[in-house]
Amino acid sequence: MIRRLFVVLLLAVLGGLFLALQLGYVPDAQLNQTAAYYAEHGAGELGAANLVTAIIVTYRGLDTLGEVTVLFLATTIIGLVLATGRATISSESRRTQVSELLTTGSRLLAPPIMLLGVYVFINGHLTPGGGFQGGAILASSALLLLLAEPLRDFSHSLIATVEALSGSIYVLLGLFGLVFAGGFLDNRFLPLGTFGELFSAGAIPLIYSLIGLKVGAEFSSVLVHLSATDTTEEQP
Amino acid sequence: MTTLAMTTGFVLILIGLYGALTNRNLLRMIVGFTIADTGVHIVLVAVGALPGRTAPILDAAVPPAEALARIVDPIPQALVLTAIVIGLGVTALMLAYAYRLFVRRGTLDIAKMTELKW
To answer: What is the mean pLDDT of residues B69-82?
Structure first.
């Protein structure tokens, strides 16, 4: 088949490019200039033990704000795309058999999973993890609840409120940094505290928690939208 | 180790693109894109990994004074975190569009969607 041949040819060329890249790649022995700056001054300047968090929340905080905006847009468009022309779903059509094990298990597991999510984003400046990972864990508990009780009506307005509030406070904290510290999203308008403690690194835990809530709300709203359309709509 | 990770990443990108280009089912194409996405992430992290160094998290084991000589480059890791989140958003968006197309057409076969064909 001629079409498949083209694809294979194209990928062979791409593979050749990758091979050239790989053969010519020499791992650095030292950190490059930017990374060296973060490694040397990151802990002292911002007080965050996790340098990745320091970069995401503060050094490149503006990019993260953009990222959260992209995620918000994606969620909104998904809501729009799935909502238009959605048939009104009677609870009758959504009735599915859910096993006893799943229902009981989800009651047991959902709260600890939520707690783990909160733990992950509150400790984002100390341990691996942070707002995005914690938010994803939060949303996974929402997924479990959705699987266990498909009939339960998730409050769209609650999810939207959490999302909107955490997003606005995030921007507000960024402006605080502009007024009271060095620049937009600067974390040093709060005391840096002792290095390695939970309440340290200025506003980083606060900002990352807000990101976690926002991401959790966004992912949950995607899941709720996708599950709400989980009906056999009549084909035209 | 870095070579192995990089090779895996490149191979995953090729596999994903092959899947996305040769399959005609929209869902399989989306899976292909996701695999290619994962490959890109692995390559990025591998570029930032310096041999014999540890994660960029400072604690008792890696005091801030020794950070310069002992941690890997944290910037690619931050970039990949961003890329994963955006990738998830894009995947969800693709799935939503695929769902709408299926509702409208009753098929996921890309060959049957001929409006843009020339």
So the answer is: 86
User: Please, are residues A214 and A68 in contact by the beta-carbon 8 Å criterion?
Assistant: yes
Residue of B nearest to A13 (CA): B14
ipTM of the prediction greater than 0.90, yes or no: no
Pick the CATH number of B2-50+71-112 from 1.10.287.3510, 3.40.50.2300, 1.10.10.10, 3.40.50.10260: 1.10.287.3510
Q: Which residue of A has its CA nearest to B91?
A: A74
- Interchain CB distance below 8 Å, A71 and B85: yes
More confident residue, A153 or B29: B29
When CB atoms are compared, the residue of B14, B73, B89 closest to A70 is B89
Q: Which residues of A touch B100 (CB under 8 A)?
A: 81-82
pLDDT given at position A234: 44
Burial of residue A194, with CB atoms counted within 10 A of its CB: 0-12 exposed, 13-18 middle, 19 or more buried: exposed
Domain boundaries, chain B: 2-50+71-112
Greatest mean pLDDT among A91-95, A140-144, A177-181, A192-196 = A140-144
Can you tell me the distance from the alpha carbon of A37 to that of A27, in angstroms, rounded to the nearest whole number?
19
- Interface A:B, Cβ pairs < 8 A: 137
Predicted local confidence at residue A93, as pLDDT? 52
**What is the C-alpha radius of gyration for chain B, rounded to an integer number of angstroms?**
20
pLDDT band at residue A84 under the 50/70/90 scheme: low
Nearest by Cα to A49 from A101, A123, A99: A123
Three-state DSSP class for B109?
A: strand
Q: Identify the closest residue of chain B to A128 by CA–CA distance.
A: B57
| Closest residue to A22, CB basis, from B7, B88, B99 | B7
pTM for this prediction: 0.82
